[in-house]
Amino acid sequence: MTTIWKFSFILYLQLVDFWKRKKVSRTKLDKKELAQAHRYVLSNCDAVAPFIEEHILHLKRQCRPRRLTQLEIDKQHGQKFIEWFKLRIQRMDEQKSSEVTHELRWLSRGPSEVVRRYTGYAINGFRFQCVRVII
Questions:
Q1: Cα–Cα distance measured from residue 25 to residue 14, given in angstroms and rounded to the nearest whole number
Q2: How far apart are CA 135 and CA 95, in angstroms?
Q3: Which is nearest to 29 in space by CA: 116, 107, 133, 87?
Q4: Checking DSSP bridges between strand 114-118 and strand 24-28, what pairing results, if any?
């Protein structure tokens, strides 16, 4: 009985490996996609939250004579935060600040341009595929 189980498990692993290899392609993201991915990761990372608050205060102080609306602040924050964060971490790193962790250094550098793109995936027993693969 255990031999049959082992055989079926090995067969399953081979099928999964085959499925993964056939459905993966490497692609290069453009600058807009990279910025969107980087902004998403930074805005959802707890370690970056204090820097987001600091940047928003920085934007408000910068435009003191003319009070910015929340919409203008959000727009400027979205456009300038990635570069500001990168420079801020570099400056803190040069000053040998203990606040700069390995994680913050990597987050400030941004994502890789080359990514793996899958045509489908399986989660909790459910299989999802792109429409063009099914057709």
A1: 19
A2: 56
A3: 116
A4: antiparallel
What is the DSSP pairing of strand 120-123 with strand 126-129? Answer: antiparallel
List CB contacts of 77: < 8 A, sequence separation 6 or more: 52, 55, 56, 59
Average pLDDT of the chain, as a whole number: 78
Output the pTM of the full model.
0.67
- Domain ranges within the chain, ordered by starting residue: 29-134
What torsion do the CA atoms of 32, 35, 36, 38 make, to the nearest 10 degrees?
160
Are 86 and 106 in contact by the 8 Å Cβ rule? The answer is no
**Backbone φ and ψ of 76, nearest 5°:** -65, -40
With b for 16 or more beta-carbon neighbours within 10 A and e for fewer, the 22-45 pattern comes to ebeeeeebeeeebbeebbeebeee
pLDDT in tens, 18-57: 555 556 678 888 888 888 888 888 888 888 899 999 999 9
